[in-house]
Amino acid sequence: MSTAELIRAKKELRKRMRCLRDALDTSWKAQYDNKISTKLIEISQQTNAKVIHTYLPIGSEINIEPAI
C-alpha cells in the first residue's frame, strides 16, 4: 500500500469510528466514560504518577474530564 492509500484508509477508519461513537446511547456512553475516568485515577494513584498527558474530548470522544 502506498503512503497516500494508507492516509486515505486511516481517514476512512476515523470517519467510521466517529459515526459508531456518535450512534452510542448517551446514558450508556456516560456510564462507561465515568468508568474509564475512575480507572485512570486509580492507575495514576497506584503508580504514583507525577505527570499525566491527557486531552480534552471533542464531540463524542471519551469524556475523561472527571479524571483531569
Characteristic key phrases:
2 helices; 68 residues; mainly alpha
Describe the overall structure.
The chain has 68 residues and is mainly α. It has a domain at 25-68. The protein has 2 helices and no strands. It is flat, with a radius of gyration of 16 Å. The protein starts with a helix and ends in a 22-residue tail after the last helix. The relative contact order is 0.15.
Helix-strand topology string? HH
Termini distance? Answer: 39 Å
Residues in β-strands, percent: under 5%
Return residue spans where pLDDT drops below 50 for at least 5 consecutive residues.
none
Percentage of residues in helical conformation: 55-70%
Give the total of beta strands.
0
How would you classify the quaternary structure? single chain
For the report, how would you describe the main beta sheet? none
Secondary structural class: mainly alpha
Query: What is Rg?
Result: 16 Å
Mean pLDDT: 95
Q: What's the helix count? A: 2
- Shape descriptor reads flat
